[in-house]
Write a structure and sequence with these properties.
76% helix, 78 residues
Length: 78
């Protein structure tokens, strides 16, 4: 299975417009989305071997990405 990024637009394609609007108008959402994107990039780099991290760290940042994704989804639904 190829290793890919998990951008919010791909994770929630049905909320593409809402993601864009919230990024522009809601500072809290924008911060969460920015943090999610940064963690996603870190995970991608680790899985590609570009950055060397231990398994525990990788597991923890994957959990953090999932937590942020849950928060973002909750905001998108309201």
């Amino acid at each position: 299975m190829p290793i890919t990024h998990h951008p919010l637009i791909d994770e929630f394609p049905e909320y593409k417009d809402a993601i864009h609007n919230l990024k522009m108008k809601n500072a809290h959402f924008s911060r969460l989305a920015h943090e999610y994107e940064g963690i996603d990039k870190s995970i991608f780099r680790a899985e590609q071997g570009i950055e060397i991290v231990n398994d525990e760290y990788l597991e923890n940042i994957k959990k953090e990405r999932l937590h942020l994704k849950d928060l973002i989804y909750s905001m998108l639904r309201t």
